[in-house]
# Entry
Amino acid sequence: MSRELSPAGKRTGRSSQPEMRASHADRDRVADLLCVAAGDGRLTADELDQRLEAALSARTLGELTELTADLPAASALAGGVAVAAKDVLRIDHKFSAVERAGRWVVPRRLELSVEWCEVTLDFTQAVITHDTLQIDLDMRGKNLTLIVKPGIVVDPDALHLEFSKVRNRQAPNPGTPIALRVELLGKKSFGRVVVRQPRRTAGQWLLRKRTALPAGD
# Structure
């Protein structure tokens, strides 16, 4: 009997029904797998962009299957979500900017050893696989910017500050469950740690302005 790849990268039989319509969860599973594959060096940045665009616009399971056919099967399937995050990610950098944005896979622990370079970690589209991320800082100069969304909480209490300060602009929402707690450890000297939400686009500002104006006669 022939076997096929499901959208999650798992080998299945003919019952996978490639003509079946894909759900949002199916598309997200494939997007997560593609990000992991890119992080392992199996896909280039251009290939990742092309496949992510195709995955998010796919209509059937068969279209999703084609995007993962040349990748290894998922190492784990828990509740249908297949992601393999590194336990520790280390970034050692000087003088040039560091950025993690888009659908990057959040590790369990991030070790940042940087000097005089801006660091931006954007969690708004990140693939979150654990409920806690520890960021161990050894950072001198410039700013560390954490861009968060509801459900992501940053705890800087254990961070030692030397000629530096924290500007926490999180918008607390007691009704939102915590999906990720980011714990800052280590030392930050000469600069700032900024925690903020994504900036509004021009369209969002225009919409906000219009809704704030009184209705005309």
Remarks:
- Helices lie at 24-39, 45-57, 61-68, 202-212.
